[in-house]
């Protein structure tokens, strides 16, 4: 197995597809319940979260079948906060890519979770944010994304990196919870001290 490779995103991607234009997906196509539509607001913490009222019926899905998401796809926001993306799991297979998103399809030697972790890193987010166009709402320039140079380790190493990042993130969450608990306890303690002092 080859070691680390340096490559541009354009050399890695199997396919890059922009979500349907607004003229293809009208406001009137949206409904409550149905097949979720993935717009930037649906991409949270590297996961796809359906937004209520942002769904379509089977007829609209059939008409826009080329924008259907597949397991292993990467969905990336092309508006707003740069670098926001998520990978499609078995559960989200068949959902619809929305107008403000991109679909990135990767080859077998790139682990989707690793790719999402990499794109979501502060360095890449800063690079994409600094190169985004539009004053009021940032829009991702596809050429900038395709020109991004990344370090790509062997597949087994990608899995190891993701496992380590997940482990460290879990530790960060644990520390944050402990800190919040300590702050709450300190506040209660201070309140008790004040009550004792006032009662004295």
First-residue to last-residue Cα separation = 75 Å
CATH topology of the largest domain: Adenine-n6-DNA-methyltransferase TaqI, Chain A, domain 2
How many distinct folded domains? 2
Would you identify the regions where 5 or more consecutive residues have pLDDT less than 50?
A: none
Helix content: 25-40%
Please describe the biggest sheet, giving its number of strands, its sense, and whether it closes into a barrel. 4 strands, antiparallel
Q: Give the beta-strand count.
A: 11
Strand order of the largest sheet: 2-10-7-8
Number of helices, counting only DSSP H or I runs of 4 residues or more: 6
Mean residue pLDDT = 87
CATH superfamily of the largest domain: DNA methylase specificity domains
Radius of gyration computed on alpha carbons: 21 Å
Shape: globular
Describe this structure in words.
It is a single chain. A hairpin with a 7-residue loop joins β7 (74-77) and β8. The chain has 200 residues and is α+β, with helices and mostly antiparallel strands. It contains 6 helices and 11 strands. It has helices at 9-12, 58-63, 112-119, 122-130, 142-147, 155-199, and strands spanning 5-8, 15-18, 35-38, 43-44, 47-48, 55-56, 74-77, 85-87, 96-97, 101-105, 149-152. It has 2 domains: 7-152, Adenine-n6-DNA-methyltransferase TaqI, Chain A, domain 2, CATH 3.90.220.20; 154-200. The chain is 39% helix and 18% strand. The protein has a 4-stranded antiparallel beta sheet with strand order 2-10-7-8, with helices on one face. The radius of gyration is 21 Å and the shape is globular. The longest helix has 45 residues, at 155-199.
């Amino acid at each position: 197995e080859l070691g680390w490779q340096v490559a541009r995103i354009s050399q890695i991607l199997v396919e890059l597809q922009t979500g349907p234009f607004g003229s293809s997906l009208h406001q009137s196509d949206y409904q409550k319940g149905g097949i979720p539509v993935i717009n930037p607001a649906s991409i949270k913490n590297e996961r796809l979260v359906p937004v209520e009222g942002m769904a379509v019926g089977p007829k609209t899905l059939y008409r826009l079948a080329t924008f259907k998401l597949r397991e292993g796809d990467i969905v990336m926001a092309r508006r707003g906060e740069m670098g926001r993306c998520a990978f499609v799991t078995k559960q989200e297979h068949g959902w619809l890519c929305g107008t403000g998103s991109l679909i990135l399809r990767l080859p077998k030697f790139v682990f989707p979770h690793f790719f999402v972790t990499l794109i979501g890193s502060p360095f890449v987010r800063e690079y994409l944010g600094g190169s985004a166009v539009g004053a009021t709402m940032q829009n991702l320039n596809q050429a900038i994304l395709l020109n991004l140079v990344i370090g790509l380790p062997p597949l087994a190493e990608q899995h190891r990196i993701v496992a380590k990042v997940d482990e460290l993130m879990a530790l960060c969450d644990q520390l944050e919870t402990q800190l919040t608990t300590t702050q709450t306890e300190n506040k209660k303690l201070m309140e008790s001290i004040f009550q004792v002092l006032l009662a004295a």
